[in-house]
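Please fill in the sequence for the structure shown.

STRUCTURE ENCODING:
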């Protein structure tokens, strides 16, 4: 593994943990969603940490910030997919509360991180 700076970022570490959580909950979706909503949600979740990593490797401030903003947009995409899962009754109330907490925490940390980019 490469020893790169993004791996030391709290926001990147939180995003990676979030992926694990998303994989866990989407594994409980109906089997016919494996290549549908579950896959879309997982891909968007992976994109969060991937864009943080890619952004941190960019030299230009404008490029770095753009990748971090794309990461935040991927988080919003995950939120959208989870809202659909709620409508489809794929998630119980306990899971919904856990998801909400994790989404809001990651969104807040990522937003603060973007604001501090210099």
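FILLED IN BY: designer on duty
SEQUENCE:
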């Amino acid at each position: 593994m490469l020893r790169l700076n993004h791996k030391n970022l709290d926001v990147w570490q939180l995003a990676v943990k979030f992926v694990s959580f998303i994989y866990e909950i989407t594994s409980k979706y109906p089997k016919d969603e494996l290549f549908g909503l579950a896959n879309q949600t997982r891909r968007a979740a992976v994109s969060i940490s991937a864009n943080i990593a890619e952004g941190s490797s960019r030299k230009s401030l404008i490029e770095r910030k753009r990748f971090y903003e794309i990461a935040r947009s991927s988080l919003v995409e995950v939120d959208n997919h989870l809202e659909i899962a709620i409508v489809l009754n794929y998630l119980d109330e306990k899971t919904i509360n856990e998801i909400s907490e994790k989404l809001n925490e990651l969104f807040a940390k990522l937003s603060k991180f973007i604001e501090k980019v210099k």
